[in-house]
Amino acid sequence: MKVEQIYTSCLAEAAYYIHSNGEAAIIDPLRETAPYLERAERDHVKIKYIFLTHFHADFVSGHVDLAKKTGAQIVFGPGAKGDFDFYNGKDNEEFPVGDGIIKLLHTPGHTLESSTYLLIDKNKKDQCIFTGDTLFIGDVGRPDLAVKQGELTEKDLAKHLFHSLRDKIMPLPNDVIVYPNHGAGSACGKNMSKETFDTLGHQKEVNYALRADMTEAEFVKEVLTGLSKPPQYFSKNVMMNKGVNPEFDSIISQGTEALIFDFVSKKQKEGVLILDVRSQADFTKEHIAGSIFIGLNGQFAPWVGALIKDINQPIILICPEGKEEEAVKRLSRIGYDNAIGYLKGGVQTWKDNGGATDFIESISPEEFEAISEKEGGKINVLDVRKPGEYDSEHLINATNEPLDYLNENISNLDKDKTYYVHCAGGYRSVIFESIAKAAGIHHIIDVKEGFGGIKNKTKLDRKEFVCPSTLV
């Protein structure tokens, strides 16, 4: 049997394509069906099953579309409930695929229906496990996303997860390969490795959650410690994954329509969001007044999901030429299906028709250092990195205003003050500044290259955090 991991870096998500002797199975597909259909056509195989490890929170899956196009059976673990046709698999149930078997292991904890799929070859040898969000490389899935008011607490789910790992996964052979649904950068865990697969034996040695002598109480405490607030779109994606959504092809068709200036200008006045997905350098130089920036060259979809609260928000795109379809596709992966097109000719068309533009003043780390020294350090510096990054090391006079919480905290900013804004490398700061400007905060200056540039190119005073103790 052949296994291919299809890894999507901007979501830190892994789907899987497995085929053997004319039959194939897909595990945890993304919204778009083309990657799986193309592989099946290339290998002259029929997609027989679409396995879901759980109802995903951080992306919208393409299982319903894929099933319609292939006739494949959708399979979820025990207890799953959805508004489409699927099969509720049973614990230890086996599904033949070509010369091998995919065995469902019910592993609740991340969610109640969470399941791990064990691939067994024709010689009855356990080859690999597809663990979804139950077990990551270096971490385990967070148990706080499926909490139900009056029914389950995060501690209840953490206890389920403890026993799932020890009763179902850890007894498997050490040479079994672990294939998770996510890698570093995903908000579905807190300490994931940059590696996207490993042996189970090595994970037993290095993954804190698989420590052999760990008690249930220790596991619960450690798994729940340090969890950040989940992005606001997670619960919305779960609901979409339980329902039937617009077909991906129709979303692409609508979102890639070329629009003229008069239409875009009218829609902006009606409250349609103009989303600029070019590079941060292009945006700071000149952009449509009132538009916001989230560039395709960074963690585009997660930041859209974190910062654009209305998942049904109508969006008009400003794109680099030829990137329109990519932008719409990446929006749809997290359920933002209401892109209504892109402005043909972009910012230049807007200017040519008399539309107002704006810019963000941008300075180098060296210029920032000179200004800081001239003002005796008495300037307003906003560090928009995550709290953990800030705690690790930051400028002495910087205030932490994480981009993640900008919508909730924007009232903290004073329209009469001038702010110098930086992140780690220059991407998140421009997102922050664009939203602030759209909210009427205009005295804002971007520090290019972020904290990395400041650290490497200046001698400004910094404070490092020293951890007093380590959880064991």
UniProtKB/TrEMBL annotation:
Highest rank taxon of the organism: Bacteria
GO MF annotations in UniProt: hydrolase activity; metal ion binding; sulfur dioxygenase activity
Record key words, sorted: Hydrolase, Metal-binding
PROSITE patterns, per database record: RHODANESE_3
Metal-binding among keywords: yes
SUPFAM superfamilies from the UniProt entry: Metallo-hydrolase/oxidoreductase (SSF56281), Rhodanese/Cell cycle control phosphatase (SSF52821)
Any single biological process term in GO: glutathione metabolic process
Entry-linked Pfam families: Lactamase_B, Rhodanese
UniProt entry tagged with the keyword Lyase: no
Database matches in SMART domains: Lactamase_B, RHOD
Residues annotated as domain Rhodanese: 268-359, 375-459
The protein's name: MBL fold metallo-hydrolase
Gene source species: Putridiphycobacter roseus
